[in-house]
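Let us practice reading a record.
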Amino acid sequence: MVLTASSSATAFLWSNGDTTISITVSPSSTTTYTVTVSDSLCSVSDSVSVYVADSVIADISTPASPGCAPYTNNFTNNSNGSDYYWDFGNGDTSTQVSPAYTYLDSGTFNGMLIATDSSSCNVKDTVFFTVDVLALAVDAGPDDSICNGASTVLAASSGTTAFLWSNGDTTASITVSPSSTTSYFVTATDGPCSVSDTVEVSVGQPPLAVTISGPSQLCMGSSITLTVQGPGPYMWSTGDNLASITVSPAASTSYWVQSTNNCGTSSDTADIAVTPPPVLQVSDDTTIAFGASATLSASGASSYLWSTGAAFNSITVSPEQSTTYTVTGTDSLGCSTAGSVTVTVLPEAYVVYVPNVFSINSSNSENKRLHVFGRGIESLELIIYDRWGEILYETSDASPATRSDGMCCAYGEGWDGTDDNDGKQLNTSVFAYKLKGVFSNGEDFIESGNITLIR
């Protein structure tokens, strides 16, 4: 590089000793040069620095080679660049400083590293490398299964003839007879390469004993569940293959179950006794007048349960309408049977009553309105009052209609819970009523009380 001083003086002195106006320098590192100029009266100095940039050098430690696929090489980068580009020779690349790269395939791979530094004199530099990857595989063969006491042959295959099995054998094929499931591994060796594979020999045992649990007795017409304990799969004499079966034999029966595998069979049998139900005698159907009672009885069992909830062999009932009563009789073995008896109630000729509650939202049409119920009513007058005594509703409609249960009768269209004075629907509350009328036999009746309206 040429350095030139600019001055009107004619006397120059550079820091390197030169006395010319221009000097040529070639420093190996950054250096500052000073020049002093003078004339007969004055002397002044100035300086200039020459900066020397380094060169980038690509350099790596020689990769370990050869290796066996899959082969991982930890590359060591000794370069002085700021950015790096690796080409591993198989199309894969990396920009890491010192990457660890795994070669999955065998072969000879010619790679390179490019080191870059934009501030250096040469900007980038390249170094080449070679990695040799060898291939070796071994196959211990497919997993196998045998029954306890049997043997099997394991055969390894590989591109080499040097084998070592986990049992110490060094031949390609070995005969084994384990008493329990065992894994065997074999190692094949060829030069620097050594690979292993494993094969499992499953040892089957005859099925353990199976046992059937469940009741040994049932009542005729009922069912029981039988359950097998022990290893499956199962096959019952019924054809079922589940752990539990539900059976309902009509007579005493034996059921068996088997558990079978490739190494043997185990079985068990359950004898089931079927007991007939008790013979139940129940009172004959009977007819009573309204308000009368009847005694119903049952026999032939050890205990009884009536539909009324009573647990005696006989009960006394006084139904208001015809009713069928059922009774279940149970013997000492727990077997039961049911019977029934119907009590027919002759209706009362003249009766009247008013319900004490009704609901506008009821699903029963008769409960959605307040009706006068009864039998034999010739005429009536019904008045509904609020708590202040104001009349909300009154009717003299005595037209009869058959009730939804088929009985007689519901009278009139019924009150729908609205105030007849203004047509507004009333909220939930309690109201008073007065009812008077005449039966068809000329007898008068008078009723009064409270009514609850529910919305």
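A brief commentary: The mean pLDDT is 91.
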